Amino acid sequence: MKKKSGLLTAHPAVIAVWAALMAAASLLPAFPIVGTGATFNIANCLTPLAGIFFGPIAGAIAAGVGGFIGQLLAPHTVLFGPLQFTIGIMGALASGYAMQRKWWVSFGIITLFGGIWYLFPTGRGAWATPLLYLLGYAAILVGWFVSRKKDALLSPNRGKMMLGLFCASLAGIVVTQAMGNLWALIFFQLPPAIWFTVLAIAPVERLMFAVGAMIIGTPLLIGLPKIGIQVGPMIYQQEDEEDIPEPAIEAKG
């Protein structure tokens, strides 16, 4: 897959619309966050789709703008101050690279955050927390396997497409979990007992967010190109066709 030139792989208007959707979705609660009184919101399902639909950089911009506006609209979801939107940026970035089949980037981001965790005494006390990230590694392994010969997100097999979308989404969602954990470790200094309690709940939450992203994303991945909005791997496929010299296109036709 050829990388499209420039930072933006989608029209700025499309990115703005997705950012607005994410901001609006922040008003819809999904799950309570244990021990905080705050809630996750539906925007958690849209964050990885930003990277998958528009590419890692454009998706990160959409997630960042949408997340920043969303935390102004729904301050009850804000735990980590004005920089909370950076969590969504990293999640969209990881899913965007997974969409490009650069699974090693998502692997590296998860591993980096997991390693930083053990630099903190409290993190070493709650030593089992990074075991949650095995979920991300599993998603990366399965995603790599199903897309190693042909991109799963372009497959006419809808089951394979849904599996690829689920894996790319879960990789990004685990990154948001890993970064959010670090923010919580720094801001709240929660005791290990709390972290061990979360350990039993967080995998279910992350899997549900990934399923939600798959359910929302699959019809959009199929339908948006039909109305002229290229998303997912098609944004790169379209660039490849544009690079073919005009006589070659006519000969091909």
Quick check: average pLDDT?
84
Strand composition percent: under 5%
Overall shape: globular
For the record, the CATH architecture stands as Orthogonal Bundle
Distance between the termini: 22 Å
Order of helices and strands: HEEHHHHHHHHHH
β-strand number: 2
Radius of gyration: 18 Å
Uncertain residue segments: 239-253
CATH topology: Arp2/3 complex 21 kDa subunit ARPC3
Number of helices: 11
**CATH C-level category:** Mainly Alpha
Structural class: mainly alpha
Q: Tell me the domain tally.
A: 1
Main sheet properties: 2 strands, antiparallel
Classify the helix fraction into a percent range: 55-70%
**How are the strands ordered across the major sheet?**
1-2
Folded structure, characterized:
- There is one protein chain.
- The chain has 253 residues and is mainly alpha-helical.
- It has one domain: Arp2/3 complex 21 kDa subunit ARPC3.
- It is built from eleven helices and two strands, in the order αββαααααααααα.
- It has a two-stranded antiparallel sheet with strand order 1-2.
- The longest helix has 32 residues, at 192-223.
- It is globular and about 50 Å long.
- The model is unreliable at 239-253 (pLDDT under 50).
Task: Draw up the topology in text.
Elements: H1 12-25, E1 29-32, E2 39-41, H2 43-54, H3 56-73, H4 85-99, H5 103-117, H6 121-125, H7 134-147, H8 158-188, H9 192-223, H10 234-242, H11 246-252
Antiparallel strand pairs: 1-2
Helix pairs in contact: 1-2, 1-3, 2-3, 2-4, 2-8, 2-9, 3-4, 4-5, 4-8, 5-7, 5-8, 7-8, 8-9
